[in-house]
User: Fold these one by one.
Assistant:
Number 1:
Amino acid sequence: MRGSHVVRLFTANGCQSETIPNSVETGPWLVLFREDSLFYYRNEPLRVTSPRTDDGAGGRAADRDSGGSSAAISESLSISESEINQLLDVTPDDVGAASELSFARNVFVPLTTACRYTCTYCTYYDPPGQASLMSPDEIRESVRMGADAGCTEALFTFGDDPDERYAQIHEQLAEWGHESIHSYLREACEIALDEGLLPHSNPGDQTRAQMEQVADVNASMGVMLETTADVQAHGGPRAKSPEQRLNTIRVAGELGVPFTTGILVGIGETWRDRAVSLLAIARLHERHGHIQEVLVQNVVPNERWREDPVPVETTRRAVAMARAALPETVSVQVPPNLSPVRELLDCGVDDLGGVSPVTDDYINPDYAWPALAELRDIADVAGVPLTERLPVYERYVGENWLSPRIDDAIHADNEAGRRYQSVLNN
Ligand code: SF4
């Protein structure tokens, strides 16, 4: 089939994805058409992942192996065939509804919309020249508003490390005395703590050095795994890699950072990829105990993603698989502004994520957060209590998971400390 093919390039520095446009895979060859010429690349040492032919929106994506990263990852994490097949057999009938639903009250702080990647379903990132960077004053104003409204969490969102194309962002950071976005994130987290909110940062992929730079000023952190597969939705000249995201999750475990991750459903992955993704998260949690919650998020149509919505039956099965793959202590979260949560309640959902009484959901601005009253209504439909939580789950508080800076903030005898403690004691 002629089209774009994502190839894995194995080099001395590891492996990376690259999209070869206008090409066709035939036998051991990847044939590239360029103007009047044909180029033949021997399909070694390239490992070619086939163009996706399953339903990107999720419907009846095949249970087959997609090859590429999912296969390599299941091997490296010792995920067995029987585990995968067992999880593929799970249906909503095999899991139970949760006995309560939790949520966190947050303020959304889109620190920068610069991103080195160009995922085709994402409306969050802005190209170089258009990307924003919040100033310290804007951050302070935003988090102060959140604290005044009774929030407990400052949710710092990013693209992924702005690369050299974002000259303006780097110049602005330098003007403010920062050599990197992580150095600036540290200052942003300090502002949030000063104003009475607990930071939860999602800066995309992170190296160990980057995470170490900010771990002690975060109550928890996160990155969406999305999928272990190489999908064309991550393609383009700068494709993010599942190995890097898994490495970020592993580094968080090694550094003892309570962590949030999740899968994105409907970006071209197969059912088998979904199973491997969930089992990979479960395996890293087995090793480190640091995964506090796993989102199951269906991709939604927007100005950059014109595919059909993910069928609700697909999301139901994916949520049930997450519940079955993870220990009971790890929450399964569904974002109520993006998913038909009332139709998922019997599939094991026990958390509704962060809801903001004061800011929009900047990652999905077309989909407004429901009011807290809406969450209560969802809990009423489920017939369970709705409980507020902190951005760090209670089981990590007082168990040597938190840095002294965060532990002191939570137990401080001041207005913010009393707000955190009242949430812990509710
Ligand atoms: S999904 Fe994340 S990594 Fe991909 S373009 Fe958007 S902000 Fe960047």
Note: The radius of gyration is 21 Å.
Number 2:
Amino acid sequence: MSHSDDTTKQDIIDKAIDLATTGDPSEAIRLLWPVMLDGTQRDQALFALAFCFEKAQNYATGYYLYTKTLEGYPSFTAAAVRQQACRRVVQDQGLIEDFEDMGHRECTICTLRYRSEFSLCPYCGSEKDEKAPARKEKKPDAQEKEPLPGWEDSSIFETLQDMGRDAADRIQDIVESDAVKKISER
Ligand SMILES: [Zn+2]
């Protein structure tokens, strides 16, 4: 993955947060769909997505998504603050929703859970039961990735460790981005 690709995704995330702040959270959510479809970028978009749902006054979903963000990044303070704010509204208004119950399904693409009656995943825009597309179908121009080495090859562990570090670095960029700082100061 190239650096410029990262930057573009970061721009989309920043733009979505701005858009949600200035009053069009549903458009902001749609803006995030392509980022949410990309398994390597999803973690970074999750906080922004939670913020968009909060701004759309869907506090139960906001709470769920902030919780998911914190599962991956427990020390993400801004997410914890927003999560608690959503929790209070949900409790005050009696809007408690259990996303793990039978009335919810897991998206086959982004693996987040949403209400079974929806025909589209509200987080990534995939259709119900959509099959995960092969990488090359999604990006015909992209260069074929080297196949991952088999598990018997010890370098797989180094690869995975590196991927973990990359993800942590990227989420740190989000945590420290101006858009998130603006939210935190509010
Ligand atoms: Zn989805």
Note: Residues 136-140, 146-157 have pLDDT under 50 and may be disordered.
